[in-house]
Please model this.
Amino acid sequence: MSLIDRAIAVNRKRPWQSAAWLTSKPSPKIAILTCMDPRLNELLQWLDIKPADADVIRNVGTAATEDVVRSLMFSIHVLGVREIMIVGHSGCGMELFSEEDFEKHLHKETGVCAVAPDKFHCYSDVNGQTQKQVLKLRSHPWIPSNVVIRGFVFDLSTGELKEVTPEEANNQLAA
Model:
């Protein structure tokens, strides 16, 4: 039985117990941009944040892409989010390739070159990558200046959450 079939079977057997927060308008207090890596599935629990309090936006490599900004616009301007937390992590798969190497890998696997996506956001330094995403969001004209944006790296081996500051990235970009 596939995982999808199993999930459907479990859903049909389990009685639904609706909670008030599921049927009322969402009112998250924070938006969290993090990686889609399944090892981070319990991030809210590890940070003691209730699911109703967070909009969690996930993609490979924790990249502040166009679609992430689209989601953040709704979180900020409709739902009232005033804090954004960017959480990169140690051991991310996006550190395994350069952009060029990943495109070569895909070409080898599929036999074709594709026009989209035009960038995969591969990187070699999670601290630098996280700092860069903070800078990208801080500079977006549709994100109000009173929205707090902070970046962190979660170490999967120790559980430590370390803040990284974009000032460090500014210095590296200027060099």
The longest helix spans residues 126-138. The first strand starts at residue 30 and ends at 35.
